[in-house]
Structure formats: structure tokens, C-alpha cells
Design a protein that fits this description.
5% strand; mainly alpha; two-stranded antiparallel sheet; 7 helices; Arc Repressor Mutant, subunit A; 2 strands
């Protein structure tokens, strides 16, 4: 990747982050809901209104595959949706009843670790995730969806029909 292409990717990423931070500020200002604690990894996922967990897991896999195809064809500047990719990865882990470390999330997140860390802070600020083991040691950090995040993802993906 040329330095000009890298700068364009960084500019697109910074612009998306700026828009997201403005949206976050507006949501925090208007949000009156309380944060709910994250469910334990062994607790059953929230029951979707329309789709079953197997269908939801296939939908998540299809969306992740679509992102990889977009990345291959259009590059990072046009395919980058770090927050959504993080939510999909955390939701997929939740459906499989497993946890992801920060580094595992970086491997699936399609962005630089510093970018993923910023987006995790944004998502935590919205009450959609929590990071267990925070304290500066990325090896010990375990991001996961809160109940609010799980319900939002379930409602968003329920009824969405994508080819597997």
C-alpha cells in the first residue's frame, strides 16, 4: 500500500471516528437508560423475537464474509466499519458461548489495535459492551456484549435473510 493510500485510509478512519464520537456525545446526552451488567459467558443468549440462534449465527457469518469480500474489492477506506465488525465478532462469540481476548478480537476486527481500542471505548460508552480485566494488560482484557448490546444485536439481525 502506498503512503498516499495509507493516508487516505487513515483520513477515512479519522472521519468515521469523528462522526461516531459526535453521535456518541448526542446519545450520552439523551440516554436515560441504565447500564445492565454483561451476561456471564455460560448464560444462555437472549431469545430472539423471530430467528433462532443458529440462523443468527449464519447471518453473522454471512455479514463477516461480505465484509471480507468488500475489503478485498474496495480496500480498507471503503470497507472499514470497525464498530460494526467488533459488535458482530462479539455477538458471534456470545452465540457460541465463548469469550474473546482483546488480541483475538483484533484478529477478527479488520483494523489496527489502537483503532479497535478506541472503538471499544465508544461501544462501552454506549453501554453496548464491557471489557473485563481492564487495566492496561491487553492479554487479560475480555471484551463482551452487555445485555443491552446483545438485545440490540439480536433485534437488528432477527429477520435479516442473507445467503450462507
Amino acid at each position: 500500500m502506498t503512503s498516499e493510500a495509507r493516508r487516505l485510509d487513515q483520513a477515512a478512519e479519522a472521519e468515521a471516528l469523528g462522526r461516531s464520537l459526535l453521535d456518541l456525545a448526542a446519545r450520552i446526552r439523551n440516554d436515560t437508560s441504565r447500564r445492565e451488567p454483561a451476561p456471564s459467558p455460560t448464560e444462555r443468549p437472549a431469545k430472539p423475537a423471530v430467528a433462532d440462534p443458529t440462523t443468527l449465527a449464519r447471518t453473522v457469518a454471512s455479514l463477516q464474509g461480505l465484509r471480507q469480500r468488500r475489503l478485498r474489492h474496495f480496500g480498507l477506506a471503503l470497507a472499514g466499519e470497525a464498530a460494526w465488525d467488533l459488535l458482530l465478532s462479539l455477538y458471534e462469540a456470545r452465540l457460541a458461548r465463548r469469550e474473546l481476548s482483546f488480541y483475538q478480537l483484533c484478529a477478527t476486527g479488520g483494523a489496527y489495535p489502537a483503532t479497535i481500542r478506541r472503538w471499544l471505548a465508544v461501544l462501552a460508552g454506549l453501554g453496548l459492551i464491557e471489557v473485563e480485566g481492564e487495566g492496561g494488560d491487553p492479554v487479560a482484557e475480555r471484551p463482551r456484549l452487555t445485555r443491552k448490546g446483545e438485545i440490540a444485536m439480536t433485534e437488528c439481525l432477527s429477520g435479516l435473510s442473507l445467503p450462507a
